[in-house]
Design brief:
Layout (H helix, E strand, L loop, with lengths): L1 E4 L4 H10 L3 E2 L3 E4 L5 E4 L8 E5 L6 H17 L4 E6 L18 H10 L4 E5 L16 E4 L2 H8 L8 E4 L5 H11 L3 E3 L1 E4 L5 E4 L9 E8 L3 H12 L5 E8 L5 H7 L4 E5 L7 E3 L2 H8 L1
Parallel strand pairs: 1-2, 1-5, 5-6, 6-7, 7-8, 9-10, 9-13, 13-14, 14-15, 15-16
Antiparallel strand pairs: 3-4, 11-12
Helix pairs in contact: 1-8, 4-5, 6-7
């Protein structure tokens, strides 16, 4: 087995190759003056099982095109099986026709991806309107980084911590982290008015307790900052914000810290300034 990276998250790919004892094959990726991507895989892959690693964050369209060309090139070179590891799956939040005429982009992107590979592995995929990843891909597995985040957060010496999720969809992640501490978890109700404007409803007693707020994605930081304000107003002591995918658009980091967070923790599915935890072990377990 060999591991072939796209350009979005080479370190994730390298770490994965070490954990599953596979050969790491570096790709050569460059861009022509007209914007077209040029890709070279400098190794014979005939009859090899290949793992292609590409996180579709920050520049999703560019990275998706890279991924497709890499997979097509591998097929042309006679590889055996292609397993796509997509630590962050773009377009997953575009999973419904929210207003008339909107494309359900997740479905279209998923169809394209599965035409170029044999199976797909994702991390904490945003499956709010689907029950399982196999509704999107013929063969797929969605693993979670939340237990790894929980183990890291256990180092913070929190006092009687409660784990909070922003909405009912986040209950699955709050439950996993709370299991590490053996404590309870609760979720708010979130009302989204625009991409950056949200309101939080619900009453949760957090007086004199430390709190972990967890979600799968932090993008603009709007949801996280509003929840932290509510928690601090309600008497929470220390508040730690955690997520798997730290997209951190605009001033998300300062926005969250400014709302009262003591710390902000993310994983390496999307490399960022808050990356503290590697999700590689969760993916590696699929191969071991």
């Amino acid at each position: 087995m060999i591991v072939v990276p796209g350009s979005s998250n080479r370190l994730f790919a390298f770490k994965l190759s070490k954990q599953i004892n596979a050969k790491y094959v570096e790709t050569e990726i460059s861009e022509f003056p007209d914007g077209e991507v040029h890709i070279k895989i400098p190794r014979d892959v005939k009859k090899e099982d290949v793992v292609v690693v590409q996180s579709l964050a920050v520049r999703p369209n560019d990275y998706l095109m890279e991924f497709l060309i890499i997979c097509d090139a591998l097929r042309g070179k006679g590889c055996n099986n292609i397993c796509a590891v997509l630590p962050y799956m773009a377009y997953a939040r575009q999973d419904n026709e929210f207003t008339p005429g909107e494309a359900i982009s997740l479905l279209g992107v998923s169809r394209i991806i599965q035409e170029f590979c044999d199976e797909v592995i994702t991390v904490d995929l945003h499956l709010h309107r689907y029950n399982r990843i196999t509704e999107l891909f013929r063969k797929g597995k969605n693993v979670s980084a939340m237990p790894l985040l929980g183990s890291y957060l256990a180092r913070f010496n929190l006092d009687n911590p409660m784990v909070i999720g922003p909405d009912r969809e986040s209950a699955q992640w709050a439950k996993q982290i709370s299991a590490i501490f053996g404590n309870d978890y609760q979720v708010f109700t979130k009302m989204r008015h625009s991409p950056e404007d949200v309101s939080i409803r619900g009453e949760i007693d957090v007086r004199n307790r430390d709190v972990i707020v967890c979600d799968d994605i932090i993008s603009t930081g709007g949801t996280m900052s509003e929840i932290i304000k509510v928690l601090k107003k309600g008497g929470a002591k220390r508040v730690i914000a955690a997520c798997t995918h730290a997209l951190l658009a605009g001033n998300a980091v300062t926005r969250i810290y400014g709302s009262g967070a003591e710390d902000l923790v993310g994983t390496d599915t999307v490399p960022s300034e808050i990356t503290r935890v590697s999700a590689v072990p969760a993916v590696a377990e699929v191969f071991l």
